[in-house]
Amino acid sequence: MAxxxxxxxxxxxxxxxxxxxxxxxxxxxxxxxxxxxxxxPATSFKYLPHIAWTKDLFFPVFAPICVWLLGWLxxxxxxxxxxxxxTTSGGLKxxxxxxxxxxxxxxxxxxxxxxxxxxxxxxxxxITFALLSTIGIIVAIRSSQQQKLSAxxxxxxxxxxxxxxxxxxxxxxxxxxxxxxxxxLFDKLSGTVGPLALFSIGLQLKFGxxxxxxxxISFVLLYKLILAPLSIxxxxxxxxxxxxxxxxxxxxxxxxxxxxAGLVADQYNLNPKVSNLVVGMGILLSFITTGVWWLxxxxxxxx
Length: 303
What we know:
Layout: H1 2-20, H2 27-47, H3 58-82, H4 86-97, H5 105-112, H6 118-144, H7 151-159, H8 162-172, H9 183-190, H10 193-204, H11 214-239, H12 244-253, H13 259-267, H14 272-298
Helix pairs in contact: 1-5, 1-10, 2-8, 2-9, 2-10, 3-4, 3-6, 3-11, 3-12, 4-6, 4-11, 4-13, 4-14, 6-7, 6-12, 6-13, 11-12, 11-14, 13-14
């Protein structure tokens, strides 16, 4: 119960601070910088060195890629029949296919399951950010034509992304150095992810003008919150994958849109109004849909 209270308290606090204008307009950028450059890499160092790697962990690697591919196909078909612009189509591809596996995913996994299951969630998270940093940027550039697409640009985006670097270092450094004296530090730093991420989300949540874009919003959220996790659940059943790793992976794919995907859509002018509304409304609705998915994953005999 305390975890759910914390989630609500942090988001509501962010909303109230934004409405009262007690903080600078771009205060969330500073908070996000702490999370991305400090807290998320520390989370990788806290959990990844202690993971017992098995073949089952290929599933959380595969799932975000599958959700991206299906989302890309889903939006491509929708864009063709709805005759939306190239920029709108690009924005919808970004916000339909990338899950908020850390900012929302980590706190909800702690609330619904336990903190130790974040180890599996980190794998989903790193693959998601890798997708955004590579194919996501490619889609954004091709849809906007604001920058010339080049291998150097994509490589730079990938190699300078702190959470991804933290993941790589957390997997390699323990083989050469004893990092156990820093475990308490990593624990304290990673503990800031949940509250600060939720507070940042509250600072950014906006819902104005949603009704005029309801067609695009409902289409994307149908896929992101229902069809995407359902597709991963079906794949798990077909392949005979079960257990907690499968549950956490499916639960992570049920998360709303990655906040950074909305920021990229805004940066490349890919109909930022629709993209930001999808992010905001997806977060709101996900507190209902993730509860339903938790019931499906834990209260049925599927797993």
